[in-house]
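Here is an idea for our session: we take a single protein and study its fold together. Once you have written the record down, we can walk along the chain together.
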Amino acid sequence: MKSITFKSLGILFLALSLVTTTFAASQKVDVTKSTVKWSGKKVTGEHHGTIKIKEGNLDVTSAKVTGGKVVIDMQSLSDADANAKLEGHLKSDDFFSVATFPTSELVITKVESAGNKHTFTGNLTIKGITNPATFTATSSKDGENTVYDGALTIDRSKYNVRYGSKSFFNNLGDKVIYDEFTLDFRVVVAQ
């Protein structure tokens, strides 16, 4: 009788382990296939560039994304026109203080999904300052991977990014740089 009980407990433990593995997992972001493009506007024009994801993961429970974290490598910030002066200025204390804050991060705390459309809610930290963030994305399959395409609009004034901001300075005239900038992303998650 004891051997049957121990066997039964062993089978139950194995079954619970498989259920946990099947329904709760952390899926890694493929940083080599993922892309983030930024764009910022000013009164007299706009600039575009890229920035790289350093690392990330999405938490999945019962085949649904429930949370996660994405870390951005601020040192990879680059301008589409390879303008070294602009890149240096964006990395300086006038903007993102990259020497002091080499990464930014998004911690996803809630995901609402309807088919392949998802609303992500979480906390975005830039320059050591954290604010709530909400954005949408669509998902699709690429072989074994899941791809999330979307955009996140950020108000830089909430992160003490002051240079050329009318939120902090008056009488800037045509030197105003708008507070909002956009990150268009394609995040590839390995299954």
Remarks:
- Residues 24-189 form a domain with the Lipocalin fold (CATH 2.40.128.110).
- The chain has a mean pLDDT of 90.
